[in-house]
Structure prediction request, 456 residues.
Amino acid sequence: MTSEPKVLRPHVLLVDDEPEWGDALGEQLGRRGFKVHVARDAAAALALLESQEIDALVTDLRLERGDGVSLMVQAQELVPQLPTIVMTAYGAIDTAVEAIRRGAFHYLTKPFGVDELVLFLRRALDDRRLRRETGELRRRLNDAAPQGLVGRSTAMRAVFEVMARIADADVPVLLTGETGTGKTTIAAALHARSQRASAPFVAVNCAAIPEQLLESELFGHTRGAFTGATQASPGLFAEADHGTLFLDEIGELQPALQAKLLHVIERGVIRPLGGTRERRVNTRILAATNLDLAAAVRAGEFREDLYYRLALVVLEIPPLRDRREDIPLLVEQCLESARRRHPTAAPRRIGDEVMAAFLAYRWPGNVRELAHLIERLVLLSRNEVIAPSDLPRGFGSEGPDAAESGPGPFGDTVLPLREIQRRYARWAVAQNGGVKAHAARALGVDIKTLMKLLSE
Prediction:
């Protein structure tokens, strides 16, 4: 014969300095399924809160020693979110309303029926349970985010879900998204959650290294392979052996290197520049781009076979404007990080008006732009609370489509054409995250022409 499951009785602390009323009410609550602890004053009630596990507090507002509002405040310091119901005489309703304002769940005017108190007690306990479950859900969502990443938005939760599924899958992953969305951070998080976490994570920006040097940087070279090669180098593939190699800006890889990269992916071997012997490597490749690689394949600018090798899994990182609910979390993270780097800086938090401006802004530079702005504000603001006056001149005044509308007005002065070209070129570079190769491509000029425009 199986025994019935034990039903847990909610523990209620009843505080009333009238013995007959308090004892009678406690007895009635006990008959209705509650475990009641009775106290006559605030001091005895606080002692019980420290020694017993209390689920709800019922207190008279007027006590011979102490008062119910002060008791409630002290009780909630000991037991956060402790549901409290206050009892009051008809003439003290104003005080009861003040108790509600300071956190009481409900108030009852004496005399009242026990069933009415039981009804509100159960509602208060249900409310507390829901709050706890909601808090636990939020903690789980935060725990689901890999270390270093924040996000509660639907878009980022989808990213984290895919990351959890592919972290240990030993296949290439292509990260796509606009400049500044955090592709490098996500690549590092994928490595940290994989079985390769104890081996090196090596990152290289394919757009930042000239083509002639990138080949030896990736695959290594022998001594004397080219002018200046005074000693051999194993290359980044070998450095990341048994680990992960992150190829950022993969769309900038030239055709000859695309073919060699495909060879490494297919065969798992590299041959250093100037060498005659191949070396086997076990390296997982993560790649990233802010270009439309599929369009580049159609245009003949990127190898189709390499694209399909890299794009076995595509993880698209949303721009910041599509995850605005994450902005307060990112601001908090960036502010904390900046204050650690600059501990003597004055700012402690972001003001409400500034946060509203952040939420309305389009963020063409995404998370990177936000992080840089927060650091600037921490360094330059003299206020403990960062105010709108601390923001750069014109921030947020361009409107939501400013990032796509051009370099902005030139005022009433007619400028020389070269000056307009120089300003436009600088704006184009800024819009492309400072990567001149991308800006040149967007402008339809070569890198030398862009450099000339910038210098003029």
Residues 282 and 329 are 37 Å apart (CA to CA). Confidence is low (pLDDT under 50) at residues 1-7, 398-412.
